[in-house]
Structure formats: structure tokens, C-alpha cells
Design brief:
By secondary structure, the protein is α+β, with helices and mostly antiparallel strands. It is built from 3 helices and 5 strands, in the order ββββαααβ.
Length: about 80
Amino acid sequence: MNVKKNLALSDTGFVFNPSTGDSYSVNPIGLEILRMLKDKTSEAEIKKYLLLNYQVDSETIEKDYYDFVKGLEQHKLTENNA
């Protein structure tokens, strides 16, 4: 999965899509995930990071990661992996 290259992220969780002018807010964990996605971190590495750094089980990580990524896609913040 690739997030849009021109997506702007602030340290406070403000997300701006300059292509559309839309803005969003994410929580600190969402911001970490977005930054890792922008850095081309693999899905497996992101999930491993979350499992090691937060007190959550792998099933919850799977569900929450899936929901987060689907939200990115629904808001058109991703690009095709061409």
C-alpha cells in the first residue's frame, strides 16, 4: 500500500491532501502508521512494531490496521501500487 506522496503530515496529527484540499486528523498511533507507510515500511514490519510497542494483541492489531488502511483508501489518500 502506498499513501500519496504529496500527503502532508504535521507532528500534531494534522493530515493535508494538497491534491484535493481536504484535511484530516489522526491520533498519535495513526500518525506513526502514516509515517511508516510514507517511508515504505512493509505491512508486516508495521504490525510487528505495533505489537512490540503497545499493549495490544495481534488480533486487535490486524483488525485495527485493516480498518485504518480501509479508511485511507475511502478518503482517497492512497495510490495504486503500479
